[in-house]
Amino acid sequence: MTKQERYEEVLPQVVAMIEGETNRVSVMANVAAALHEAFQWWWTGFYTVEGDRLELGPFQGPVACYRIKRGRGVCGTAWESDETVIVPDVDQFPGHIACSSLSRSEIVVPVHDKDGNVVAVLDIDSKDLATFDEIDKKYLEELVKALSKTLVWR
Ligand code: SME
């Protein structure tokens, strides 16, 4: 099965799973679990915007840093720029925060509230180089749109 086919199969299931749900933590937890199980990534989870920093949210994988400042690391950069950031090799990303030394590549997708403010980021890490590309970006951005529509963030 190609990556695209896997997304085509998994995404509708995840979107159906969160429909009508209003508890943010529960929804983020199930989204992280569903994606992590389907793709077997190294770390799959959320950081939420809390004031001037990101704080660790629901995730699957090894323990991670609690806090990330705005503009710091890949997550803080995705928040500040309000853009999905794909990092094919974390050693080449200035200021990368190594929560796990085994993480080699990653993608971080901003999550918005209904007004378009960034309220969280979806962070996915891989033990392999260059795991993420435009296909992941497309489907993961589609997925976080469902979170924006479903959840009340503030
Ligand atoms: N790699 C992230 C930090 C979070 S952990 O990887 C889970 C970053 O540089 O933003």
Any chance you could write out the topology, listing elements then pairs?
Elements: H1 3-18, H2 24-39, E1 43-50, E2 53-60, E3 67-69, H3 73-81, E4 85-87, E5 105-112, E6 118-126, H4 134-150
Antiparallel strand pairs: 1-2, 1-6, 2-3, 4-5, 5-6
Bound molecules: methionine sulfoxide (SME).
List keywords for this structure.
single chain; 154 residues; alpha+beta; six-stranded antiparallel beta sheet; 4 helices; binds methionine sulfoxide
Can you tell me about this structure?
By secondary structure, the protein is α+β, with helices and mostly antiparallel strands. The protein contains 4 helices and 6 strands. A hairpin with a 6-residue loop joins β2 and β3. α1 runs antiparallel to α2 and α1 runs parallel beside α4. The model has no long low-confidence stretch (mean pLDDT 96). The structure holds methionine sulfoxide.
Mean pLDDT value: 96
Tell me the radius of gyration: 14 Å
Query: Which percent bin holds the helix content?
Result: 25-40%
What is the tally of beta strands?
6
Unreliable stretches (pLDDT < 50, length at least 5) are none
Strand order of the largest sheet: 3-2-1-6-5-4
Largest sheet: 6 strands, antiparallel
> What letter string, H or E per element, gives the SSE order?
HHEEEHEEEH
Structural class: alpha+beta
How far apart the termini lie comes to: 39 Å
Q: Beta-sheet strand percentage?
A: 25-35%
Which ions and ligands are bound to the chains? methionine sulfoxide
